[in-house]
Amino acid sequence: MSPESEVDLPGEALLPGALPEALRAELVAFRRDLHMHPELGNQEFRTTAAIKERLEKAGLAPRVLPAGTGLICDIGIGGGAQPDGPGGPAGSAILALRADIDALPIPDTKSECPYRSTVPDRAHACGHDVHTTVVLGAGLVLAELHRQGLLPRPVRLIFQPAEEVLPGGAAEAIEAGALDGVHRILAVHCDPRVDAGRIGLREGPITSACDRLEIALDGPGGHTARPHLTTDLVTAVARVVTDVPALVARRVDSRSGLAVTWGRIESGHAPNVIPQHAELAGTVRCLDLDAWRQAPDVVVAAIDEIANLHRAKSEITYVRGVPPVVNHPVATELLRQAMTARRGADAIEGTEQSLGGEDFSWYLERVPGAMARLGVRPPGERTIRDLHQGDFDVDEHAITVGVELFTAAALLDALG
Hints:
single chain, alpha/beta, Alpha-Beta Plaits, 4-stranded antiparallel sheet, 23% strand
């Protein structure tokens, strides 16, 4: 498929451009309900139940993941084309649409909003409520197409828990069979820098790798009057904080963007006492997949080098998180064609690789796929907003756009 090709979509009248107003309103209400009741990773029982109930009402048969949160739902399998083994029979391989369903442990700071979070210190501040509603809405439309015999290939809906919890809930979904028979997988992520009605696309890496780093430093403390008789842990911590990122950056190709950033430092309780224990925690992020694979050895060696220099004993916990999301060219072109068919080529813009991590990358280690950035900024607004902030909100027109994108992609996928 070329960007200039004209696309005649089967069942076009049933696509989101012609969605009944009742369904549009229902999807907005569903998203707002999720927004009011955010649940953290692996605790999404209410969210899972709400998704399951709506899919069953549509005549589908979702199955909840073994841990009790998250679910998988097939459309066009059983009553329609039945996959035969990992790839399915010729022409019937499954297209998967993935959503993440968890929220963040931060307070919702929106002041005058009727659907602000009702749960203290919990908020959908990353747009997962939108992702979930988009995949649900696409599933409802595709289920109707299947009932009318207009769905050429089966589609799998994946509602994944715990995306915000390293190393992410994708592994559980994959282990439970989320990718069995899947030949391609698609996802969206809300982007407050892109206007609602538009999407951002990028072939190749679109997010970065993200790991978690925790360090404990120990040594004999003492009086600040005699630091030469102690292990001066405060100075040791300060040198780790400043020197390790610089050392790491010099030991890999600078184009890889390998970066260590600290989020927590704790040490000491009195101004005249050198402490015996200190703790640091932060993240390791990387633009390049090969450099990410080298990162643990490089980072740990740099920490040990600085700690030994200051006679501090180090205990390092390096938690593997996620590799970069690397969009496959064919899957990216499928999203481009789908958006062009429904909204026109002008509704697509290029997007840069971010330093954020996303466990959608684990699916792409198994099958080709792509993630689009879903515009959620009200057109004309110029306020600079970001994800993971307590006042995060979206222009809900983005829900319809996401449903259109996924529905068209599912139909175009069958054309080759």
